[in-house]
Each structure stands twice: as C-alpha cells, then as structure tokens.
Amino acid sequence: MFETVKAHPTFNYSKGCVYSQDLYEFSEEEILAMCPSSVQKVTKMRNSNMVLLTFFGSTLPDRVHIDPINLRVRRFVSRPLQCFSCYGYGHGKSSCKEAARCGNCSALDSHSEEHCIAAAYCFHCRDAHQVCSRQCPRYHLEQDILQLANTHFISLGSARRELLKDGTGATSYASLAARSSAESVGPKTTTPATCSFGQ
Ligand SMILES: [Zn+2]
Ligand SMILES: [Zn+2]
Ligand SMILES: [Zn+2]
Predict the structure, then answer these.
(1) Which ligand is nearest the CA of 87, by number?
(2) Backbone phi, psi, residue 129, to 5°
(3) Ligand 3: centre distance to CA 124 (Å)
(4) What is the domain partition of the chain in residue ranges?
(5) Which of 36, 83, 168, 190 is the most buried (most CB within 10 A)?
(6) Higher-confidence residue: 184 or 107?
(7) What's the confidence (pLDDT) of residue 185?
(8) CA–CA distance, 120 with 106 (Å, rounded to integer)
(9) Distances from the Cα of 126 to the Cαs of 4, 110, 122, in angstroms?
(10) Are 96 and 89 in contact (CB under 8 A)?
C-alpha cells in the first residue's frame, strides 16, 4: 500500500570549483574516482579547465586532493546575490551600507513593499517591474558576471568591471571570452596562481 520510505536524498551539499589543466583529459567518472569520498558529483565545464565539485555537507573544504594533485577549492556561486534592503547586487542585507529602498517602487523613503501603493518601478533598468524581478536586464547581467567569473577564474569585481566598463555588457563579454579562450590555447598557462600542485 505504501512504498518503502527510502533514505532521504541529501539536500545538504555545497558546491566548489577547482581549476586544473591536468584534469581536462579525464572524464567526470574518472575524476570522481580520484576524489575523496566527500565529493558527491563532478561536473566538467566545457571549454574551461574548471571542474565543479559537489561536496556532501554544507561546509566547503579549502582544498581537495584529487589524486595526485592537491587543489584549492573556490566557492561556486550559482545565483546573483541581491541585497534585500537596498536591492543592489553583490552584497547581502547584513553587510549593506546603502539606504533601504522599497522593493516594489524603488523609493528611498523606506516604506515596505507590502505597504506600497505605487506602481512597480525598477531603479536598475527604469522599467515597470519590481526591483527583484528575474525579468530585469540587470539580473541577467549579474548572471553573466557570475558566469564570467566562474568560467574564467576572475573575481566577481573584475568580471563586473569587464562587463560594465563600456555599458554594453554583451559586447565586452564576448570580447573578454574571445580573449580568454585565445589565451588558453597559447603557451601561457591559464592555471591560476591559487592552485598548487603535488603537495
Ligand atoms: Zn544593500
Ligand atoms: Zn514602494
Ligand atoms: Zn529592472
């Protein structure tokens, strides 16, 4: 009558990424076999020497030993971080130093979204939607920034500057992506300084 209750799948996991050209030639299964048992899943990123590791548990280790190399683990950020006080991007409410805004109409007079009677207005793109709307072009830009930072091993700050410097995110993203892939076939190593080998 009832199905046997199976062990609950682990939702408690954390994602980190490592960068290694040495892993590029291996399949995900082969890499997983070289990983410690704390690694649940291995995902190789295409056209990049980044490997995404899903670890059991909520604590991300600083380093991981993927036989025979020891690699630095960086947190993998999958979603743009939006502050729910000022509605800016890149920081959370707890570290916000900006004036609070209404999430519906963008007003700075600190009425809350629930009590807002004004029409929806987004100060990021000046369009008629709520400030935290996933439709907002700014949200899509933030997704691009994350993707750029994750796949090209640069900080969120540098990725943001690259994408925002000429105001036309798509163009400069394309040029950076092209430049980065050109570099990766060149003689210069793209292995980041933060990864160290053979320890
Ligand atoms: Zn804020
Ligand atoms: Zn409002
Ligand atoms: Zn918007």
Answers:
(1) 1
(2) -145, 165
(3) 5
(4) 13-75, 93-185
(5) 83
(6) 107
(7) 42
(8) 8
(9) 53, 19, 5
(10) no
Q: Mind listing the pLDDT tens digit for each residue in 158-183?
A: 888 888 775 554 444 444 444 444 44
In sequence order, the β-bridge partners of residue 44 are: 51
Match 């007079």 to its residue by tokens: 109
Which three-class secondary structure state does DSSP give residue 13?
strand
Q: Kindly state the tokens that stand for 194.
A: 């933060």
Residue entry with tokens 């743009």:
80
* Interval between CA 112 and ligand 1 midpoint (Å): 15
Q: Dump pLDDT digits (tens) for 13-57.
A: 888 889 888 888 899 999 999 999 999 999 987 777 789 999 998
Tokens for 133, please give them: 């709307």
Residue 95 CA, ligand 3 centroid: distance in Å: 22
Q: Which two tokens stand for residue 32?
A: 């997983």
Q: Distances from the Cα of 144 to the Cαs of 27, 83, 147, in angstroms?
A: 27, 18, 5
How many Å lie between the centroid of ligand 1 and the Cα of residue 97? 6
Tell me which CATH code domain 13-75 carries.
Answer: 3.30.70
3-state secondary structure of 48: coil
Per-residue DSSP letter, 22: G
